């Protein structure tokens, strides 16, 4: 009877032992970082190794990969590695590396969205760039420059509305459609999609600094949400199989769903879409030599050739104003002049600071009521 | 009398209908979602539209074009093989210690060995990532194996320990009395009876390691992705049924492996998965 | 041979044998938990992790009413999933134990393991096709006229239970098989020889002798459920929130101090519940004796 595999008391003990571990912290002490062994930053006749962080997404790594091949062929002393990961996993790793081994960053530079760029400002993750020293920055407008000079934009995605064209015959025209009774139980959103709260606030006298009107609306209309999704395939599936008819989504992602054959389309609401620039950032902890190469790479990526490739593969508005988009892209709703003029800019520093509080509100006001 | 009880304890050669029915229902439940995955792998629709508008093999062609999966599968196989081996070896030694001896601290050790079961894997992953960075261990293949080994230990200790308590130490004692050293006594008297449980523990550990993604995703360096991690990353990029094709290939390959093992080693090879039946008297 | 070496031979092996397991455990697992505890005591303000030591995170955790709701949901999900798993796994293990054909047994074991061969997102696709609003089950029910509007199974509590139990089954069937195999055949034979029927033998002999294993398996499944985040996230549609899901989002959102506190909260939760079950088991065990 008593000789079963693990006894119940053992399992209890296991939990107790693990729970007691914080106490060890006091006497444990830190493990000292070991001296660098075989440091990648060679210099002793070896190649300089640069790691570029790239978005994990449909064709988002195409440009960095093609660029790396081209750059390495012209600079034999530089080796470029591309590190593709999602923002949710990639940035925490970069930050953890910065905090534990500050002189050995996980990546030397990379592509980061607006929110992560602002988060990085708070964490001191980025190096400042001297815009005057970047020859190609001259054709990059102010909307793609950052007040603190941490990084520079290469393109901009946008967030609007994606809907099921089979189940909704007249295309949605306003952000308010998302919280209208017409779509009760037929809305899907990515988890923690504060953008719809922001738009609800904005349309009802609030702002990024005063989200209260938005929270009130979504608290009352949480029943509109059929499901919150946490992965792109799931998003596409619920939008195409009739589970949900409408969502707020990236332009690039929505068009990708459409290209796969899903019965969906992207529209820009009358109030405008939310602009989400993508920034090239160089990372603190780079050696002077690495930083010099990174700045050179940033400058070359901003050139019309590479900036255009980025815009086309990522389906984004190019930062370099001398890039002209091919016709099939320029005709899309997101790129029409009247819609570009309406793009809504967001103060991402506020977003990064409020992120924790907003997630808590999302939990208690939205999630708790769906 | 004996024959009667033989029959009624279910030890006859006949499979009772109830047995088959219960098992059939349970297995149907296990297989149900996988049937759709397998069918979807032949779905002509790029986003897995259901019912499939047509059937094609293009996701298998696409799978063959992805060079990342093969290397990731190799990494996973090596990591799973080593981690499971390490976990079974270390777990067996630990199981012998805690089941065959009485000493102070034994229960604490037993508890500690089971603790990795309880902490969320994401949290272990983040903690381990920071730890490996500090120790200059990040990105080494050993780091991945070590993490998996620790996550597998509870399962190995559990299964092997469970078998050990059923094997009376008298045989080992007898071998010692006949002059064998402790290692030889264990190897000649206990190990043969433990064989099946060791196989079971190894298989379970291998499968768990091969499937582990929650903690691994934090610890891997860009050039050492495992198969589940690369599947996870593929899903962030594309939504097409290529992963359904990959899953189908994995299921098919495993099935073929099981069939081959059965054909060569005979059914007794899987008897160990029964928890060492036959030694229960 | 001196006294000292004699003592060494007699005493050391028992400790030495644990070392191969304890050393990696101490280095990797305990090390990770210590790093985590360190993070849990760091301040987190305005979206960044500060330096110094604080108990702010504990307060943040305890004062958030939503956390307590999630805690409740987590416990409920853990209790229900573990219960359903054991109820399904036990007869399956028993049937598997009684299965005479080696080939059939191998096939069954292969099928039991097959869920582990697919990624959780791929499995979620299958569940959606089966359980979704326009899924196979709802369409069938509608065609035979049993329902007018689709049953909401997907993205609700039932879907999470169905999918969780599915992945828990291999982990439950295994230990139960071992426990059932431990029931001495002589006990069964004796019961039959004394004229007991099948049903009586099961409830009077087999089940009591495996009861502790059932409780243990339940506890194991409970622990595995409450530390899973992907399945509740993918099939719960935001309605089923579990603590480990919050840990995952907090890791991504750089609120590591909170993620650490929540991880330890999960530990304490398991500790309390497993302890409570042990206590209840001991009390009822005393009564039945």
Can you describe this structure?
The complex is a heterotrimer of chains A (370), B (281) and C (289). Chain A is α/β, with parallel strands linked by helices and 370 residues long. Chain A has 2 domains: 178 residues, D-Maltodextrin-Binding Protein, domain 2, CATH 3.40.190; 139 residues, D-Maltodextrin-Binding Protein, domain 2. Chain A has 14 helices and 10 strands. In chain A, the strands form 2 sheets. In chain A, strands 1, 2, 3, 4, 7, 8, 9 and 10 form an 8-stranded mixed β-sheet that branches. A two-stranded parallel ribbon of chain A has the order 5-6. The N terminus of chain A is likely disordered. Chain B has 281 residues and is mostly helical. Chain B has a single domain, classed as MetI-like fold (Orthogonal Bundle), CATH 1.10.3720. In chain B, 72% of the residues lie in helices and 0% in strands. Chain B starts with a helix and ends in a 10-residue tail after the last helix. Chain C has one domain: Orthogonal Bundle (MetI-like fold), CATH 1.10.3720.10. Chain C is built from 12 helices and 2 strands, in the order H-E-E-H-H-H-H-H-H-H-H-H-H-H. Chain C has a two-stranded antiparallel sheet with strand order 1-2. In chain C, a hairpin with a 2-residue loop joins strand 1 and strand 2. The longest helix of chain C is centred in the first third of the chain and has 38 residues. Chain C is globular and about 70 Å long. Chain C starts with a helix and ends with a helix. The N terminus of chain C is likely disordered. Classes of the chains: A alpha/beta (370), B mainly alpha (281), C mainly alpha (289). The interface between B and C is large, with 109 and 100 residues. Chain C: This is ABC transporter permease. Chain C: Keywords: Cell membrane, Membrane, Transmembrane, Transmembrane helix, Transport.
